[in-house]
Specification:
There is one protein chain. The chain is an alpha+beta fold. Helix content is about 45%, strand content about 15%. It is built from 25 helices and 31 strands. Strand 3, helix 5 and strand 4 form a beta-alpha-beta unit. Helix 1 packs antiparallel against helix 2 and helix 22 packs antiparallel against helix 23. The longest helix has about 40 residues. It is extended.
Length: about 900
């Protein structure tokens, strides 16, 4: 066998290979020594003097030797290579060119592979709990979306509880709070982008925009992104906090102006945007623009963040702690972009108590803040007025919307304009007649006609003065007539637009209160029944509770609403009146309806110790001006001994931890709310979620005014007098005792059997009457009998299945959500309560999962090495190996 001479290397070739390998090794050794020396030397600034300190003298010496020797050997190698190249042959140059071409080809392959890898890549979720892996069912649903969806990430730099647009960073605790907010915002944006990138893998229909409020170009970007998206700009402007919006681009359509106004008059939820190129056409977007706050995706826990990462001394050094709310909620929000906004019906007894914009002096009555908070978070609100005022004998039962009252108001305005116009025309006719007389008659004729009025002869001066006066009056009358005509045209246009709302127009003709109220609440997903009675007991400010009595037909509508399984929120204040305690009987059938569900409204008013001082200040205020009362905040219930918790209370506690601030929710003079022991045991959750302050007691007669003569009265402040032993109230809910008291409960139960079966109600009532005689045996049997019904086909007893489960929340104060604007604590309580009632637990804060930054304590030198060492070292190492291989291959 012959030996391949191409594989044989002479001593000269071997020497050249060794020299090149040695030279490359020396070059990389010199670079490593330089990097180590740079890491060991730190520049420290003390005042205006810069000093350099050396750490690790032994390591520095070795690094210096590496740099010196490596640089020297590298220089010798480069000199050797230069001499060899100058004396080399043409054949060697051709071989070198061939090798260089191979290197370039390899680089091209490398770049091409990386390009293909970036374009066609595979993602792996390396998190422990697969936080960024969409469930298979959700991913399949997202793949089915054909329409383009725009996702807007708005960084408004405003989290819960912050009322300013931009945070003012101060030193100390405020600066730390701002740092947590900023880092949480940055991390949430990163995670949103990661999740949206995963969405992009499912299709190219997702368009993502990030808006940084207050940054350069923010307004320009908003204008560009919302140019063809009606309603999006308003939604961004109205966002109260850091938010994510989902916009269905395929739902934008072009309509004529008349068609758009017709849809608006019909009560449809529509966003309009004019088109400068075509003034007769508008862009329209029908439906909801879903919004997801950052807290609904990843909730910052400031309390846990400040207590995290304890050092050796036990002192917490802090760490960012977030509670993931689940990627499912984010994905579901995209899938539900076409869903209907939940509609909340607000049953009020007067327009002043509705959610319409409040006039001056009516802020304490209005529910405008409730409407604004709910609409900002994806709800629709409709007011239903259940009382007709102005009738003899007090307010009468009714059912109408605010749109119907606009008909009456506008018609009354038109009638007033017509009456005023007739009066002005008569007045103008009279002025014109007198003006004509003074201009055309002689002085003698004027004297005969007007001598009784002037009581003297008419002179030229009197005639000129009257001509001037009458001319001015005619001018004023003509101006007012023109104003009336303009106002009447505007009012008539408003009335014409309302007439296009056929439903509201037809509702005016309906006189059956029950039928009309049923129709007005049929498309509501939830009802809120507020009863604002006692507003300030120390000032004896209250609304007569009798005004809130609902008729039997109206209560029947609420009952039927509950029977469909829909939720109801009742906010009912105390039934106390001036100089008399609240009656023992329920106010109306609505309170009896709540009792059927196992919720009992207490008859007392809860007075705090701080408010007792307010009573005394009120008495002194008759002479000295009085003083305001600083009420203590209410408390949120904690889990019971069995581990049951209330989801609303848990959400409020999580919200407080997120903001790292106590939720100062202050409620004036509520009433206790109790849940029957049987009902409390059946439920899977703890019923109570809101508790009164501990420094309080329940008062039967909170508003007593003593007549001191002369038409004057003085408020008698209540005093705590506990129920004595031996009194029949001792041990009952009516016992006068110290707090805390439950003032807010929430239950989910199967609706009472007697609501569906009249016979069942009679059996249960008979069992209750027989309980003292048989110890409850008959009651148990009759109740069991009422739970079954005969099957129509087999005539066998079967369990009743038509009963539904329903959710109910009751708060013992009608003014808990009143006001022109709700405080952050009020708003969060309202949102958490509504979301739970509507079975939207995915909107409630979750604390079962936790994410925090992995912590590795390093000093400045270690941070520098770990930051730049891999960044520079790994590429250089692989370059070194590649060059060695290239050198060896070249000599072969």
């Amino acid at each position: 066998m012959k030996t391949d001479t191409r594989q044989h290397l002479g001593w000269a070739a071997r020497f050249r290979v060794a020299a090149r390998i040695l030279g490359l090794t020396a070059l990389f050794a010199a670079l490593s020594g330089l990097f180590i020396l740079f890491a060991l030397f730190h520049e420290v600034t003390v005042g205006n003097i810069r000093t350099v300190t050396l750490e690790g003298v032994g390591t520095a010496f070795v690094a210096a030797l590496m740099l010196l020797i490596g640089a020297s050997v590298t220089a010798l190698w480069l000199l050797f290579e230069l001499l060899t190249w100058l004396g080399g042959s043409g054949r060697r140059s051709a071989a070198g060119a061939n090798a260089m071409a191979q290197v370039l080809l390899a680089l091209a392959v490398f770049v091409g592979l990386n390009y293909l890898g970036f374009k066609y890549f595979k993602r792996w979720d390396m998190t422990r709990n697969q936080d960024f892996t969409l469930p298979t069912t959700v991913a399949d649903d997202l793949r089915k979306l054909d329409a383009k969806t725009t996702i807007v990430v708005l960084k408004r730099h405003k989290a819960f509880g912050q009322l300013s647009e931009q945070r003012t960073v101060q030193r100390g605790a405020d600066e730390l709070d701002a740092a947590y907010d900023d880092e949480a915002e940055r991390k949430v944006v990163d995670k949103v982008n990661d999740l949206v990138d995963q969405f992009r893998l499912l299709g190219s229909q997702f368009h993502v925009v990030t808006l940084n409020f207050g940054s350069k170009g923010f307004s320009k970007t908003v204008v560009e992104e919302t140019a063809d998206r009606p309603g999006l700009r308003d939604a961004i402007a109205a966002a109260p906090e850091n938010s994510i919006f989902f916009y269905a681009d395929d739902r934008v359509e072009t309509l004529t102006a008349d068609e758009a106004h017709r849809r608006q008059a019909a009560g449809r939820h529509i966003h309009l945007q004019s088109q400068p190129k075509d003034p007769n056409a508008v862009l329209a977007y029908m439906g909801n623009i879903p919004r997801l706050s950052f807290n609904e995706f990843y909730r910052l826990d400031k309390t846990a963040s400040k207590a995290a990462n304890p050092g050796p001394d036990g002192v917490a050094r802090g760490n960012l702690v977030l509670h993931p709310q689940g990627v499912e909620s984010f994905a579901r929000r995209v899938l539900a972009i076409q869903e209907k906004r939940p509609k909340v019906g607000l049953l009020v007894i007067h327009e002043v108590l509705s959610s319409a914009p409040a006039g001056a002096g009516r802020e304490i009555f209005t529910a405008a803040g409730l409407r604004r908070s709910l609409e900002d978070h994806g709800f629709d609100v409709v007011d239903v007025v259940v009382k007709k005022w102005g009738e003899q004998g007090g307010p009468a039962p009714a059912a109408y919307t605010l749109a119907e009252t606009q008909f009456e108001r506008l018609e009354a305005e038109l009638e007033g304009y017509d009456e005023e116009r007739r009066d002005l025309q008569d007045e103008r006719k009279e002025y014109a007649e007198h003006l004509s007389n003074f201009r055309d008659m002689t002085l003698d004729q004027l004297t005969v006609k007007y001598k009784a009025q002037f009581r003297r002869d008419v002179t030229k001066e009197i005639r000129d003065a009257n001509i001037l006066n009458l001319s001015e009056r005619l001018k004023l009358v003509d101006e007012r007539l023109a104003e009336i005509d303009a106002e009447r045209r505007e009012t008539d246009a408003q009335l014409s637009a309302l007439l296009k709302n056929e439903r509201a127009f037809e509702d005016r003709r309906v006189t059956d209160v029950k039928a009309k109220l049923t129709r007005l609440t049929a498309d509501c997903d939830m009802l809120i029944v507020p009863r604002l009675t006692v507003m300030n007991a120390s000032a004896v400010e209250a609304i007569d509770p009798s005004f809130y009595k609902l008729s039997a037909e109206q209560v029947a509508v609420v009952k039927d609403f509950m029977k469909t399984g829909k939720p109801v929120l009742v906010c009912a204040g105390p039934n106390a009146e001036r100089n008399s305690p609240a009656p023992t009987d329920p106010l109306d059938d609505l309170e009896r309806l709540l009792a059927d569900r196992g919720v009992q409204l207490g008859r007392e008013t809860i007075i705090t110790n701080a408010e007792q001082k307010g009573f005394a200040a009120g008495r002194a205020g008759n002479q000295l001006g009085g003083a305001t009362t600083d009420l203590p905040p209410v408390a949120f219930a904690t889990p019971d001994d069995n581990g049951r918790d209330n989801p609303i209370a848990s959400a409020m506690r999580a919200t407080a931890a997120s903001a790292d601030q106590k939720l100062d929710l202050k409620i004036n003079d509520p009433r206790p709310v109790y849940v029957s022991p049987e009902m409390a045991k059946k439920g899977s959750i703890k019923p109570e979620f809101l508790l009164s302050p501990a420094a309080s007691w329940n008062e039967e007669n909170p508003m007593v005014i003593r007549n001191i003569g002369g038409g004057r009265g003085v408020v008698i402040p209540p005093r705590f007098k506990p129920t004595p032993f031996g009194d029949r109230k001792k041990g009952t809910p009516d016992e006068v005792r110290r707090g805390p008291f439950p003032i807010g409960v929430a239950i989910e139960t199967t609706l009472p059997i007697e609501w569906y079966n009249d016979e069942a109600g009679k059996l249960i009532e008979a069992g209750a009457l027989a309980t003292p005689l048989d110890g409850g045996l008959l009651a148990v049997c009759l109740t069991a009998k009422s739970e079954v019904a005969k099957d129509k086909t087999s005539d066998k007893a079967v369990l009743q299945t038509e009963r539904k489960k329903g959710r109910l929340a009751v708060i013992g104060q009608g003014g808990v959500f009143t006001g022109k604007q709700l405080s952050p604590a009020q708003e969060q309580l309202l949102l958490h309560t509504c979301n739970w009632l509507l079975n939207r637990e995915d909107r409630l804060p979750r604390t079962d999962a936790e994410w925090s930054y992995p912590r590795l304590n390093r000093d400045e030198k270690q941070s520098f090495v770990w930051k730049f060492g891999p960044f520079l070292g790994l590429p250089m190492f692989f370059l070194y190996l590649g060059l060695i291989v290239w050198i060896v291959r070249r000599v072969r």
